[in-house]
Specification:
- By secondary structure, the chain is mainly alpha-helical.
- The protein has one domain.
- It is built from 18 helices and 4 strands.
- Strands 1-4 form a two-stranded antiparallel ribbon. The protein has a two-stranded antiparallel sheet with strand order 2-3.
- Helix 7 packs antiparallel against helix 15, helix 16 runs antiparallel to helix 17 and helix 17 crosses helix 18.
- The radius of gyration is 21 Å and the shape is globular.
- The model has no long low-confidence stretch (mean pLDDT 84).
Length: 421
């Protein structure tokens, strides 16, 4: 139970950060906050009861940014339709897990691209945080430049960055949540937020619950025709490998991996993750996935599903105060995005940077995700580069047929995008 409470404190920041990100897609912030708590609560309880694992789940960082900034803002897909895409990606994840196709996909993607995607998403999230804070701004000569650090929002964000950084190096649990709250208080004292809030009850959840538009998904045409496949692929791909990476990291720390390196109950965990994504989309939030912050609970002694159940119950209780997340300014959540983005760079140490076959695709993936504001573009460049370099080196064999298929689809995607432009 202590481990469950510890996990909750370390990941409770998502209750404030997720609405801030999805709110920029036009979604009602109070409803998204409630949906975030509901999805995290139900998904974590499911993981505890069905898979008996100390893993907590919540809307994933990176995928919420892709949902808001790429799918809705750049591609012009309405957010109810985007929620429909999230639901279908969960269904696809479920089918792939049940049929064993998941193993084929995992085998086709080289490990260094897993690491590169994680690192690229980290830079993407950090870039969004710096942009939201006004620390970096658009510049016609250099594309980006340093913003006005004397501006109130930038100054508040820098304050939050210092607070979260200091608490983190002191190993204070819940450092990000504390930093967000303290920065919000500072913003209130500086007169930067409106302290008035409309009366709230749980019926506000209805503003996003069951608002997904599946008919709209299948009706996407014109410029969205091929885009639908891309959206589903990115939601599925990132959720799949982000979840696998988290499962390996947390279960390894918990000592749950057996002598031959297998994770007992892995399929149950993956099935729960797929179901959680569908539950989250029905509630009104982006893809739900396992959280690496669960390692904090494991460190506190969590070894069974009771840890996840306790975390889930705490998220459900938080639903009653979640709408107050709309009081939190973007300047207060931006530092959390920057810190989380930085922490997500750790997997890049797994890339063999001295080997060009690994380094070139990894670099293209890492660079293209933040610079094009698209996880899909980073995946496309990295996977295609890996296939081409492997072909040139003469190492492409029959087992790489799925890699070739994926790379060919990405090439067709680039041709289609250039033709559409």
């Amino acid at each position: 139970m202590l481990a469950g409470a510890t996990t909750f404190v370390t990941m409770a920041y998502i209750v404030l950060v997720n609405p801030a990100i999805l709110g920029q897609a036009g979604m009602p912030i109070a409803a998204v906050a409630a949906a975030t708590c509901f999805a995290a609560g139900v998904a974590s309880i499911m993981m505890g009861l069905f898979a008996n694992a100390p893993l907590a789940l919540a809307p994933g960082m990176g995928l919420n940014a892709y949902f808001s900034f790429t799918v809705v803002q750049q591609m012009g897909v309405p957010w109810p339709v985007a929620l429909g895409c999230v639901f279908l990606s969960g269904v696809a994840f479920l089918i792939l897990t049940l049929t064993g196709v998941r193993q084929l996909i995992v085998a086709a993607i080289p490990p260094h691209l897993f690491a590169a995607v994680a690192g690229g998403i980290g830079l993407f999230i950090g870039f969004i945080g710096l942009k939201n804070a006004g620390i970096i701004v658009a510049n016609p000569a250099t594309f980006v430049a340093l913003g006005d650090l004397h501006a109130p929002d930038a100054a508040l964000a820098l304050l939050g960055l210092v607070v979260i950084g200091a608490l983190s190096v002191w190993n204070v649990r819940g450092a990000m949540l504390i930093g967000i709250v303290l920065t919000t208080i500072a913003a209130a004292l500086a007169g930067r937020i409106d302290l008035k809030i409309a009366p709230y009850d749980l019926s506000a959840l209805g503003e996003t619950a069951f608002k997904l538009d599946l008919a709209g998904v299948f009706g996407l045409g014109g410029k969205h025709g091929l885009g639908l496949l891309e959206i589903l692929f990115v939601f599925l791909f990132v959720d799949l490998f982000d979840n696998l990476g988290t499962l390996v990291a947390v279960t390894k720390r918990a000592g749950l991996i057996d002598a031959v390196g297998r994770i007992p109950g892995l399929n149950r965990m993956l099935l729960t993750d797929a179901a959680a994504t569908m539950v989250g989309s029905l509630a009104g939030t982006s893809t739900v996935t396992s959280y690496v912050e669960s390692a904090a609970g494991v460190q506190a002694g969590g070894r069974t599903g009771l840890t996840a159940v306790v975390t889930g119950l705490l998220f459900l209780v938080t639903m009653f105060v979640a709408p107050y997340a709309q009081l939190v300014p973007i300047a207060a959540t931006a530092p959390a995005l920057i810190i989380v983005g930085g922490l997500m760079l750790l997997p890049l140490t797994e890339v063999a940077w001295e080997d060009p076959l690994a380094a070139i695709p990894a670099f293209l993936t890492v660079a293209m995700i933040p610079l094009t504001f698209s996880i899909a573009n980073g995946l496309a460049f990295g996977l295609t580069a890996h296939a081409v370099l492997k072909l040139i080196r003469g190492q492409l064999g029959r087992r790489d047929w799925l890699l070739l298929v994926l790379a060919s689809l990405f090439v067709l995607r680039f041709l289609w995008l250039s033709g559409a432009g």
